[in-house]
Design a protein that fits this description.
20 strands; 12 helices; binds flavin-adenine dinucleotide; 431 residues; alpha+beta; five-stranded antiparallel β-sheet; eight-stranded antiparallel β-sheet
């Protein structure tokens, strides 16, 4: 069976793929290195283990306890965020932090310490984890929380699956009144406008994120649409909403994403009609627009694509984002998805967590071999110069030296790695 990550690159083979079925089971004894595999929604090789064994966790999907009065949920680590939402939203609770897809497991969300549109208010997923159990290959089960085994807690949150298997998790959820969001979209015409609008919006809205047209140049560089949201208060009239997911219909051998299609899409999207003022939107299209098109990753063809997500520190953000956009525009490569957001100042719990104060930019590029790798190397130079970092969950090629300088606690972290565990990502950045 072919196991790939979401961007379908790199293609690697594993010696075996096993299923973890229950939290009480012990770890399999394997001759090669082992790695947990959640839903494979990472881009790159953080969830791959070339020449080793993958331990899939999706069958460890039991809910263990839920206190409707406090919003404390306990579940196995293979439960999807989508399943949690289906259970808790009707009871007035929501995930305190969610990435842009709900088809990820709780274990995967912890191991990458994922962030969402509300980082400036709520921080990362790890900030809302009350405790979890870590199963080590020597059979030890460590209960990890902020007042017990704190070092293991900090190593495992954002620990890229390397410290052992997270078997179950206890989370604190966020109270809501109904499944709807109050939303507002604002078009902005340049990067300067973005910085101003975003700073103002973050003081008023819990959720903010911007799509930008990365093909625009000159005075229009960085133009885009800022999407704001907050959970809706109690209201008498709520619209009915029904999900109608579609599936990307073909698996083309080559990428349908090229300079022309990207240019046309960006122009159309930037100019799309925007409703003036506030709107009432169901949480699913607001948080998960990409989940509405199942298997959209196939549009990049069999060679897959690269996602490039970086964060630049506040003092270097404005100049650095401009430099990155200049390089992308000059390269002639573009991205449908260019997402810009500023992270808040909440310090991450995890030793290897990606979020840190500054601006984060995420882009998708079809894999055109050396040409794309050259472009990404040029982007790296800006990130390096700015003292920024790349996101391991979205990486298949960052140079080892960039990883080490951006994650200075990596050596301390290494002491917590389980001797039976490893990943393609880790071996690559350690070399
Ligand atoms: C459309 C889309 C939008 C996204 N948006 C965002 C976003 O807004 N913000 C963001 O931060 N990320 C985002 N991501 C990335 C995604 O949230 C993360 O990569 C997430 O960690 C994937 O979870 P998964 O269950 O698929 O784990 P996998 O990708 O399968 O694995 C991820 C890591 O978790 C480890 N792991 C999994 N389960 C366990 C376990 N039980 N115990 C120990 N380790 C484990 C794996 O070994 C691996 O290192 C997005 C991805 C997609 C496809």
């Amino acid at each position: 069976m072919m196991i790939t990550s979401w961007n379908r690159y790199p293609l690697v083979s594993h010696t075996n793929v096993l299923d973890a079925v229950h939290r009480h089971e012990s770890l399999p004894i394997t001759s090669g290195p082992l790695l947990a595999f959640g839903s494979g929604r990472s881009y790159g090789d953080v969830c791959l283990n070339e020449g080793g064994v993958l331990l899939r966790t999706r069958r460890m999907d039991r809910f263990i306890a839920f206190d409707e009065s406090t919003g404390v949920l306990v579940c196995e680590s293979g439960v999807l965020l989508a399943d949690i939402l289906d259970l808790v939203v009707p009871q007035g609770w929501f995930l305190p932090v969610t990435p842009g897809t709900r088809f990820v497991t709780v274990g995967g969300a912890i191991a990458n310490d994922v962030h969402g549109k509300n980082h400036h208010i709520q921080g990362n997923f790890g900030h809302h984890v009350r405790k979890f159990e870590l199963l080590r290959s020597d059979g030890e089960r460590k209960l990890c929380c902020p007042d017990k085994n704190i070092d293991w807690f900090r190593a495992t949150i954002g620990g890229l699956g390397l410290t052992g298997l997270i078997t179950w998790v206890e989370l604190q959820l966020l109270p809501i009144i109904n499944p709807f969001m109050i939303t507002e979209s604002k078009r902005f015409h340049s990067l300067d406008d973005f910085w101003e609008l975003s700073a103002e919006a973050e003081s008023q809205w819990p959720y903010t994120v911007a799509w930008i047209d990365c093909t625009a140049t000159g005075k229009r560089q960085g133009r885009g649409i800022l999407m704001l949201g907050q959970h809706a208060p109690a209201q008498a009239d709520l619209p009915t909403w029904k999900e109608r997911p579609r599936r990307f219909p073909v698996d083309p051998p080559f990428s349908l994403v090229n300079t022309l299609s990207v240019r046309a899409f960006n122009l159309l999207y930037y100019n799309k009609p925007i409703k003036k003022g506030l709107a009432l939107t169901h949480y699913k299209p607001y948080f998960y627009p990409l989940d509405g098109m199942l298997e959209w990753n196939r549009m990049y063809g069999r060679k897959g694509f690269f996602q490039y997500q970086c964060v630049l520190p506040p003092e270097a953000s404005q100049e650095g984002i401009r430099d990155l956009l200049n390089i992308i525009a000059n390269s002639g490569s573009g991205s449908f998805l260019a997402v810009l957001k500023t992270f808040g100042s909440k310090i991450s719990q995890g030793m290897l967590s990606f979020p840190r104060p500054g601006a984060t930019l995420a882009l998708d590029f079809p894999n055109q071999g050396k040409r794309t790798l050259r472009l990404l190397n040029e982007l790296d130079a800006v990130v390096r110069e700015a003292g920024g970092a790349l996101y391991p969950a979205k990486d298949a090629r960052m140079p080892s030296e960039l990883f080490r300088s951006a994650y200075p606690l990596w050596e301390q972290f290494s002491t917590f790695i389980d001797p039976q565990f490893s990943s393609s990502f880790w071996r690559r950045v350690k070399e």
